[in-house]
Write a structure and sequence with these properties.
By secondary structure, this protein is mostly helical. Among the domains are: 2-56, no CATH class; 159-196, no CATH class. The protein is built from five helices and three strands, in the order αβαββααα. The chain has helices at 2-9, 20-37, 58-173, 180-188, 190-196; strands at 17-19, 41-44, 51-55. A three-stranded mixed β-sheet has the order 1-2-3, with helices on one face. The longest helix has 116 residues, at 58-173. It starts with a helix and ends with a helix.
């Protein structure tokens, strides 16, 4: 009881600054009072009046430490949220860029599809023209061949007739056996003479 009365008497010192000489004499008493009252006592230098230390009750120190840990957690969470927001912003930009590229690719594909369709149509028209032109040239070539065959046949017939007339004249002028040179010529040209005769 006497101790509680002494604590109550010194309660006015708790929460204030005390010189070091007073603290040296009353440290156990001040520690008990700080624990009971839950207040912080700051210890100052006797000469300069500069703070040197503080008597902090354990409950107050723990309560002060918990918010710091929470503050660290909150700061870490805020940092993570900021990083996630930055990542989301970057990802959104990348998605927009990808969407723009996709739109461009689709436009190019549509244009290329139209170009391919036009190229196919043009190739078909060119192929039809080439086929028609080839067929026309083939007809012309066949007509020319037929004309040349007829012309060659007519010229060959005319040459045979003239050759037959020449051999007939030669037979008339030099009958077989009359001239050896003419007989040798007849022997060399025997195959042609059969066709002519």
């Amino acid at each position: 009881m006497a101790e509680n009365a002494a604590l109550a008497a010194d309660a006015e010192d708790v929460g204030r600054t005390l010189p070091l000489r007073d603290v040296r004499m009353r440290l156990p008493h001040l520690a008990a009072l700080a624990r009971a009252a839950g207040q912080v006592t700051v210890i100052v230098d006797d000469r300069t009046n500069q703070p040197l230390a503080a008597l902090v009750p354990l409950a107050v120190a723990r309560a002060a430490a918990v918010p710091r840990a929470d503050d660290r957690r909150i700061a870490e969470l805020e940092r993570r949220v900021a990083a996630a927001e930055e990542n989301a912003r970057v990802a959104t930009g990348q998605v927009r860029a990808a969407a723009e590229k996709l739109r461009t690719v689709r436009e190019l594909a549509a244009a290329a599809g139209a170009d391919v369709h036009a190229a196919r149509e043009q190739a078909r028209v060119v192929a039809e023209r080439a086929a028609a032109s080839s067929a026309g040239w083939a007809r012309r070539c066949e007509t020319l061949r037929a004309d040349l065959r007829r012309q060659h046949g007519a010229e060959l017939s005319a040459a045979r007739r003239e050759l037959a007339r020449a051999w007939a004249e030669l037979h008339r002028v030099s009958p077989p056996g009359a001239d050896r040179d003419v007989d040798r010529l007849r022997a060399a040209q025997h195959d042609f003479l059969d066709d002519v005769a």
